[in-house]
């Protein structure tokens, strides 16, 4: 047989054997990964984890360390899942599910954050008084207190509870209350309130705001009542957003919105009573916004917002499976998106990789030089940016030198 043909056949045989090794070797994978949760203190919390093949052994990590009943009291394990019988402050943190096969290969899940629902009280401030000219617009500021998850507005308007907007009152997601055209019937006491949707707890402002209406022959001047100073807004991708703009005057002029100096046209956002409303924010909605109104003298006045959109970490291109010979090099790449930029952690068979002479980490890449047979296994990247977490892995197969002989 011709020597060139023998080399070709040997190469084909070598690749076939390598592919056979890669395909026939079992590696663990996740059918479902644990998800972050927020629950009431004392409730039962469950983190679900399903892996394949069935022979894979499931364990858990808490804060990056192995977890068992001794290290964290109050946890139970059943069919791969984790149950916290009574959620307490000591259980708050980051959990991960680990799937490992008897012969070594292992993977770890993305981060699952466990938090306790809570809501803070309003500050014990003084009662406020607000005197507004009849026919003008007014905003009663009711910033929501700290809450996990975010609170929903619950207001008391002249003794009556209001949760959603009415013909007279516009209840905004921030908690603020807007009255479009004030009249005598709006006089009275207004109290801010907030509701935690998980605990079911409602907190009310200790005092409130007393609104009185004054009458004048001359109409109120056109001015922007809210916001009175530039504001920066952080909003998570796909969440709703309302940029508030309250313009006084009788009648109050219609405002127009500008984004980065150009007028906003109807599309992803819609104007509602001079407010700019987004149903689901996208990264492309980031930018500088101005609410502009014109006075009777023709002067343009404005209020400014800067919108920053937070995006959960995600992987656009994960590591790919590789087959290499001992002594050669291998490179794994993990391309990511997210705002803020995610941190990347590399692991080998579920154990964090410490950069060394042979293991070099640079940006989104991991390079293994002088590969040995012991390097065969699962290389994995885990992303986290505080908004979300993701993971992806690639298998490194080392081919033996026996199949290289001709």
TrEMBL record:
The reply on keyword Disulfide bond is yes
Q: Does the record carry Disulfide bond as a key word?
A: yes
Q: Pfam families of this UniProt entry?
A: Ig_3 (PF13927)
Q: What does the UniProt keyword field contain?
A: Cell membrane, Disulfide bond, Glycoprotein, Immunoglobulin domain, Membrane, Repeat, Signal, Transmembrane, Transmembrane helix
Classify the main location.
Answer: membrane
Cited InterPro entries: Ig-like_dom, Ig-like_dom_sf, Ig-like_fold, Ig_sub, Ig_sub2
* GO BP annotations, alphabetical order: cell-cell adhesion; nervous system development
Annotated localization: Cell membrane; Membrane
Q: What is this protein called?
A: Cell adhesion molecule-related/down-regulated by oncogenes
Tell me the organism: Dissostichus eleginoides
